[in-house]
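Lab intake sheet, docking and co-folding queue.

SAMPLE TYPE: protein with bound small molecule
LIGAND NAME: 2-acetamido-2-deoxy-beta-D-glucopyranose
LIGAND FORMAT: SMILES
REQUESTED OUTPUT: full 3D complex as structure tokens
PRIORITY: normal
SUBMITTED BY: R.K., bench team

The fields below were copied directly from the construct record.
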Amino acid sequence: MTKGLPETLEFSQRPRRGILTPHIRMLYVYSFLVVAGFLFYLSQGFWTTYSTARLPPHATVSLARCRSLHAKPGPSRDFHKRSYSDRFVEGTKPTLIKNARIWTGDANGTEVVNADILLDKGIIKGIGRVGHAHLKMLRDDLVVLDAKNAWITPGIVDLHSHIGDSPLPDLNGAQDDNSLLGPIQPWLRALDGLNTHDDSYLLSIAGGVTTALVLPGSANAIGGQGFTVKLRSTPERSPSSMLLEPPYQINSSFLEEAERPRWRQMKHACGENPNGVYGYTRMDTVWAFRQAYNKAREIKDGQDQYCNDVLDGDWAKLTKEPFPEDLQWEAMVDILRGRVKVQVHCYEAVDLDDFVRLSQEFQFPVAAFHHAHEAYLVPDVLKKAYEHPPAVAMFAAVARYKREAYRGSVFAPRVLAQHGLPVVMKSDSSAAFHSRDLLFEAQQAHFYGLPENLAIAAVTSTPAEVMGMGHRVGYIKEGWDADLVIWDSHPLALGATPIQVFIDGIPQLSSPHVVEKPKAFQVSPKVPNFDKEAKDTVNYEGLPPLEPEEAAHDAVVFTGVKSVYARTNDSVDEVFLAEDANSYGIVVVEKGIMKCFGSSSQCGMDLSESSATIVDLNGGALSPGLVTYGAPIGLEEINEEPSTRDGAVPDPLYQPVPKIVGGDGALIRASDGLQFGGRDSLLAYRAGVTAGIVAPIHDLFFAGLSTTFSTAARNKLSEGAVIQDVNALHVSVRHFGSPSVSTQIGTLRHLLLHPDDSHAGKWFKNVAEGEETLVVEADSADVIATLVSLKKEVEKQYRSKVKLTISGGIEAYLLAKDLAHADVGVIQVPARPFPAVWEQRRISPGPPLTEQSSILTLLEHNVTVGVGITENWAAQNTRFDVGWIAIEAGGRLSKGQALALASTNLEKLLGGKVKAQSAHDLVATRGGELLDFESKVVAVISPRRGVVDLM
Ligand SMILES: *[C@@H]1O[C@H](CO)[C@@H](O)[C@H](O)[C@H]1NC(C)=O
Ligand SMILES: *[C@@H]1O[C@H](CO)[C@@H](O)[C@H](O)[C@H]1NC(C)=O
Ligand SMILES: *[C@@H]1O[C@H](CO)[C@@H](O)[C@H](O)[C@H]1NC(C)=O
Ligand SMILES: *[C@@H]1O[C@H](CO)[C@@H](O)[C@H](O)[C@H]1NC(C)=O
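RESULT FIELD (auto-filled):
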């Protein structure tokens, strides 16, 4: 990013916009009015003069509508001369933010200005330097805030949200984002289901999100109209008052065109979602689109004809027939008139191609393709869309959850940007994803090669433009809405967190908790080079080979080593740290075993004579291989494709288990269902996650025995593929509805206190006697408390010490002291909690909302803590999940402790029995440490297999 414009403008010194004196200006205004009036008279013919007196009422309306038939949406011409915002809340004090480093959004996002910002009346009044003299002149209710050179960006803008329509926690009574009454429903409006009580509003604001486009779900080919909202609460407490520049049609059936129309939004969806709901094929869905657009075109043609005739003087037609209109289809007609931002959930090349042809057939522009996992493979198709290429609104790493997303790539944003296509990162905020961490999507896109200016623009100015709101949000410019975020670090640094968030000039965080960030986090991270990987990904149509290559020599020497983290018994410790670049060390590896680390003389190594493979880490590090847990990685390739999954185990609490399986006492082992070479496994491996621990896939109470496997192994019979055949016994206690939670607990008590002779019975007995680990999936603090009581009950009867681990554990921190006392460990899944369902509603979100995260609270009470994931794609992000926890702890957690959360702690909590330290993988990173954005995994040292893998 070029650090542009160091200029410091005095507010009073800014060039004036006009140079005309007032009375000359009035003269101009009068002459303009006279000329304009005359032209208007000529163009409108005699109807203007006759209409009011002689025409029936409908005719006046029809005439008005005909005259504005070709009006295009957008702000009024003098919009930026406004002196206050239409969203200004009376009583909001003006605020002066001094000494800010402002990313303005101008010059394609390359402009950064060091200046002060004045907010007043809901808008940005000025950007420049305010001296003492001017401060005095400003109003005496002025709030002055010293940003102390902190980064400020526009408020984050989310182009794809279901906030309010799919509110959290997810309760049946308020799921209003998908109508299932038909594939084509352009007449539905997301506004009509917009709930004001969504826990996501404040959480997302705490992530810097200020504006969101709320779209209907994707169950339908045309799901309905979307609406742009600002996330702050309003004095009126209504959905309507949250809207940003809503179209006039929210109040009247048809636009009466007193003003320029405003942008509307229409959700479309291609492919698997609408197909799945309606039993359609792609052919059916596209026909449904064409039929709907054809209907709209017929109405539009009728309107055009009518208006041609009446504006041409067809008096009879005007008095007899009203302007042809249809309330169900008017929004579709508006699409054909170029007044609607068409937002299309569309994944694959086939879908994108279909939709681009549709846009040409019916001549309407597409605002953006959303999700669009294959867009980066077909940029030329996108460029063929009618009028202009659509933007592409993506996730960074979320992929492969269904077939359509199988070729999704972390390199998509950079590839699309290289083709000049507008790149947007979006959240899909709902019970599955959360918009609080939308900025993290941009950070990842940046990590994988999207340039810094475009990465920030991808969550600010670009989505603002794509939703038609670029004239007021998405930038920090004079006259724009006063929506901005003061960050505790550079916005692309891992864990960047708001210090304060302003919406319409109103500070949103009442008492923000701020963590001191290291100096290095105040500049953009120097991300690694992924040019080759990106190129390969395109060449292989999204499925590049991911298997690592073994080093050619038995001896491998890593040079340029800045730090070494090693497992020492149950913890991870920094065992080597170079003071500076001159004292970088080496690590000598023989047949996959680390023999020495330190200076080359300490290791007795003459590199010039060595026949070893030399790997320069350039200030990098060695760290223990990470472990993934929580998602069914290793048991499924594509979540929504049963033919790629192990499938779910039978559950005796719900249905008798067939005798042939062993009856109700059967116990299933995950290791029997392992599949190797999966893309998420290999991607995880390439990101330093060298092992996975997985329990059998289960939908309900009963799971079975977990296993530990290598994420890199080719197949089960290859060396080191299964690291530990059986780990722990897993069950879930959740609010499934029926049987009750109390029945599930009762079952668990019965199994532990009265085990039978079955396979399961023996395992429950071993658990009761403290021999084996029991892992219970539970989130509710009430359920967890009951489990702690049950543990004591069992221990009393058996005089034992039961090894109990809580997995999920979103509310566990509320019992931190009791858990520590009862020696119960917690694996929090996911590491960044959000209240997806009721039993997770009491999250501890961490800064800026609470002083610390739930994980830190548990750790400070000496509870053993691990972290997990909920979906396979997330395994590759483990390094960032853990790095984020460390940076958010503000120095209260060492890097070793952070690494342990996804390695030693996790293994211990899941019944890991591989004790020999020398048996565990080490990961080599170039350019930085495993937990930061500046490093790339280049090798894995595998003592089990006796090799070093290079990538
Ligand atoms: C922004 O980028 C576009 C496309 O790359 C380029 O044409 C334009 O000149 C750039 N504008 C500025 C101000 O850098
Ligand atoms: C809708 O009607 C209300 C009440 O008259 C008014 O305050 C609001 O501005 C109208 N909104 C639009 C978009 O026309
Ligand atoms: C690790 O455990 C061994 C054996 O229990 C012990 O001798 C050694 O001191 C421990 N090392 C550390 C660093 O705690
Ligand atoms: C946690 O353990 C440390 C070290 O053993 C101890 O100093 C501290 O008091 C413990 N904290 C709590 C809350 O028990």
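REVIEWER NOTE: The pocket of 2-acetamido-2-deoxy-beta-D-glucopyranose (ligand 3) is lined by residues 568-569 (CB under 6 Å).
SIGN-OFF: pending second check by T.M.
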